[in-house]
Amino acid sequence: MSSQPEVMESTEIPSNPSNQNDWNRSSSRSGWGLSGRLLLAGLFLLAILAAGAYSLSSPAIRQALSIGKPPTSKYMTETVKRAPFRIAVTERGTLDSLKSATLASQVEGTTTIISLVPEGTLVEKGEVVCELDSSQLIQEEKEQQIAVTTAEADLKKAEENLEIQKRQNESDIAAARLAGELAQLDLEKYREGESIQLENEIKGEITVAEEELARSVESYEFSKRLAKKGYKSQNDVEADRIAVTKTQIKRDVALDKLKVLKNYTYRRTIRELEEMADESVRELDRVRRQAAAALAQFEADFKAKKLTYEVQKGKLERCQKQIAACTIRAPQPGEVVYNTDGGSRRSEGDVIEVGVSVRERQPIIKLPDLSQMKVDARIHESKISRVRPGLPVIIRVDAYPNNTLIGVVDHVSSVPVSGRFPNYDLKQYESIIRIESQDDPDIKLKPGLTASLEIIVEERSNVLQTPVQSVITVGRESIAYVMTPTGPERRSLLIGKSNDQFVEVLDGVQAGEQVVMNPRSHFAEEISRLQASQDRSQTDRVRGATLPIEVPAEPASGSGPSADGEGERPRPQRPAGVGPGEAGPGGEGSGRPEGGRGADSNGSPRQPRTRPAGGGARPQGQSE
Q1: CB contact at 8 A, 434 and 59
Q2: DSSP structural state of residue 584
Q3: What is the Cα–Cα distance from 38 to 42, expressed in whole angstroms?
Q4: To which H or E segment does residue 327 belong?
Q5: Would you say 453 and 395 are in contact if contact means Cβ atoms under 8 Å apart?
Q6: What digits encode the pLDDT tens for the residues 316-338?
Q7: Which helix (H) or strand (E) holds 450?
Q8: Rounded to the nearest 5°, which phi and psi values hold at 459?
Q9: With contact defined as beta carbons under 8 Å apart, do 305 and 153 qualify?
Q10: What's the 3-state SS for 551-583?
Q11: What phi and psi, each to the nearest 5 degrees, are found at residue 39?
C-alpha cells in the first residue's frame, strides 16, 4: 500500500510545462521507453482538449469568462463610418417616348374602325395606319355640294340686283336733281322775265285803249256837231257813241287785267313756282333716301346670300375634312402601339380592333420615337419639395435589371393630381425624367416598361453616418446606443440630413464605434422612462409659463350670484412679473394700488387668493 502513492506520483502529468524535463527524467528512471513517452504525451493533449470543451460548454464557466467583456452576442450592431452620403428620392415610373405621337379619331360623333395596321408594325411617315368608316360622310358631301351650288347661284343673283339698284339710284337722283334745278329756273324766269313781260303787255293794251278812246270820243263829238248841222244822221252819231263805249270797255278791261296781274296772278304764280322749287329740293332728298333704303335692302340680301354661301361651303369643306380624317396617316416614323389606356374609374382599357366604334378625339394609336425615351413618374407630395428640374436620376428598368440608365429631371408639374382608384385622396405631382444614356446601347427600350427611379438630390463624400434604424427620437432629442467595453451606452446625437438608409451625424459618436440596431426592442423600458421624463419637463415648462391670478375673496353673504341678479364680479389679474407674495405697486405682496386690498361687508381687509398654475377649478367660497 505504501508503494502505490509513489507510483501515482511518478505517473501524474505535470500541469506546468517547465516540469516536463523532470517528468521525462523520472520516466526514464522508471524504465519506460520512447514509445511510452509518446503515448503519455498524446494522452496529455487529449485531456487538455476534453477539459477545454467541457469548460466552454458549461453555462457557469461561460458566464465567468464573460465578466469584464461587453455582451455583444444578443445585439445586432453596425459600425459608424465615414463614407459617401447620398440623399435621393426613390419612385417608380413607366417608360414612354419623349416624342410620342398620339393618333386620335378626329371624326365628329362616333365611327367604326374598318382597317388597322397590326400592333408592333414599323411604319414610315405618311403611311396609312388606320381607316375609319366614311360612307355616311360621303353621302353628306354630295348633299352639301348641291346646297353649295344653290347658294352660289343665289349669291350671284343678289350681286347683280345690287348693281342694278345702284344704277337705278344714280338715275333717280339725277332726275330729281334736274327737276329741282328746272323749278328754280322757272321761278327766276317768271319773277325776272314773264311777270314783267305780261305787265308790259297789259300796260300797252291800256295805252292803246286809251288812245282809241280818245279818238272815239273826238269822233263822237265831231259827229254830234255835224248831226246838228245836218251833215250826219242820227245813226252815225249813235255808231260813234257805241264806238266810244267799246273803247272805254276795252280800256277798263286792260286796267282790270293789270290789277289782277299785280294783285293775284303774279303773287300766285310766284308762290306756286317757289313751292315747286322747294318741293324739288324735298323730292331730291326723298329720292336719295329711297335709293339708300333700296340699296341697303339689296346689300343686306347680298350679304345674307354671301353668308349662306360661306356657311354651306364651310360645311362642305368640313365634311371633306371629316372624310380625309377617316384615313389616319403616320406623322412620323415609329412602331405602332394600340392605345388601350383606360378612361373609366376602374382603369378598364379600351379595345382597339377592326369593327370597334370609336368616339371623337379618342386615342387609337401611339407612334413612339424609340430613339428618345423618358420616364413618366408621380412624386408624392411629401417628397416634391426636394425634386426640381435638372437633378440627375439613376434609372433601372425591371426588364433589364443589370442595365443602368442615366437621366435628368426635365419637368415637374406645379399642380397636383389625385391618386388613382381607389386612393383618390393622394396628392401627387406628375414629373418627366429624360433618359440621356445607358450602359448597354444595344438594349432597345420600349414604352410601357416599369422602372425604378433614384433622384439624386444631394451627394457628398466623407460624411459621418449611421443607419437610420440605430437612431430614435425622444421628444426633441435624437439618441443612439453605442457599444462600450462596459456595455451599451445611451448618447445624444446632433444629426443632419438623412436618406432612406443612413443619417448624417454631426456630433455624438465617432467613426468606428458600434451602434445598436433597433434600440426600441432592447431598451424599451429605458426609452419609456426617458419619454415620460421629457413629457413631465414639457408639462412643467407649460405650467411655469402660466402665471397665478390674484382673486378677491367672495363676499360673506354667500358664494352664489348676488342678490341683484348679477354674476360673479371680474377678478383682477396680478401685474405681469409680480409673483405671489411679491411687492406690487400698492404695497408688499398686494399687487394693488396703495390704500389696501379692499374690505368685505364687515370692514375687515379682504385677503388675496391665487389660482393654481394648472388652471384647475376652485369651489366658490373656499380659500386656497
Answers
A1: no
A2: B
A3: 6
A4: strand 327-329
A5: yes
A6: 999 999 999 999 999 988 888 88
A7: strand 450-467
A8: -145, 125
A9: no
A10: EECCCCCCCCCCCCCCCCCCCCCCCCCCCCCCC
A11: -65, -45
Mean pLDDT on 445-452: 88
Distance between CA atoms of residues 31 and 37, nearest Å: 11
Which amino acid belongs to residue 572?
Answer: P
- The three grid cell numbers given for residue 200, joined into one nine-digit string: 308790259
Please answer whether residues 465 and 502 qualify as being in contact, where contact means their C-beta atoms are separated by less than 8 angstroms: yes
CA distance 219 to 237: 9
Task: State yes or no: cis peptide before 422, omega within 30 of 0.
Answer: yes
d(CA 224, CA 240): 9
* Contact yes or no for 93/429 (Cβ under 8 A): no
**Cβ within 8 Å of residue 435, ≥6 positions away:** 98, 372, 373, 374, 375, 395, 405, 406, 407, 445
Q: With CA atoms as reference, report the closest residue to 502 among 155, 181, 79, 190.
A: 79
Instruction: Kindly state the percentage of the chain with pLDDT values over 70.
Output: 75
Q: List the single range of 405-419, 465-479, 606-620 with lowest mean pLDDT.
A: 606-620
CB contact burial 317-337 (16+ within 10 A = b; e otherwise):
eebeebbebbebebeebbbbb
Q: Using an 8 Å Cβ cutoff, are 170 and 294 in contact?
A: no
> Can you tell me the distance from the alpha carbon of 93 to that of 84, in angstroms, rounded to the nearest whole number?
27
Strand 450-467 to 392-397 pairing: antiparallel
Average pLDDT rounded to a whole number, residues 550-577: 44
Beta-carbon contacts of 77 under 8 Å, excluding residues fewer than 6 positions away, are 483, 514, 515, 516, 517
At residue 566 the predicted structure's pLDDT band, cuts being 50, 70 and 90, is very low
CB 448 within 8 Å of CB 94:
yes
Tell me which residue of 198, 205, 218, 220 sits closest to 250, measured CA to CA.
Answer: 205
Amino acid making up residue 261? L
- Average pLDDT of span 404-408: 92
Residue 12 pLDDT exceeds 90: no
Residue 126 one-letter amino acid: G
Q: Does residue 262 sit in helix, strand or coil? A: helix
The 8-class DSSP code of residue 366 comes to: E
545 pLDDT band, cuts 50/70/90, is: low
Contacts of 35 (CB under 8 A, 6+ apart): none
Q: What does each C-alpha distance from 315 to 131, 155, 393 come to in angstroms?
A: 22, 17, 52
At residue 108, the 3 state secondary structure works out as coil
Q: What is the DSSP string of 59-76?
A: HHHHHHHTTTS--GGGS-
The DSSP string of 116-134 is EPPTT-EE-TT-EEEEE--
C-alpha cell at 245: 263805249
Q: What are the cell numbers at 296?
A: 341697303
Q: Quote the CA–CA distance of 451 and 431 in Å, as a whole number.
A: 14
What are 427's strand-pairing partners? 418
Contacting residues for 94 by C-beta, under 8 A, at least 6 apart: 375, 376, 377, 447, 448, 449, 450, 451
Is 90 exceeded by the pLDDT of residue 155?
Answer: yes
Secondary structure (DSSP) of 528-546:
HHHHHHHHHHHHHHHHHHS
CA dist 396 → 239, 285, 401, 428, 481 (Å):
154, 89, 6, 22, 36
Q: At what angle do helices 234-260 and 195-229 cross, to 10 degrees?
A: 160
Q: Are 140 and 319 in contact (CB under 8 A)?
A: yes
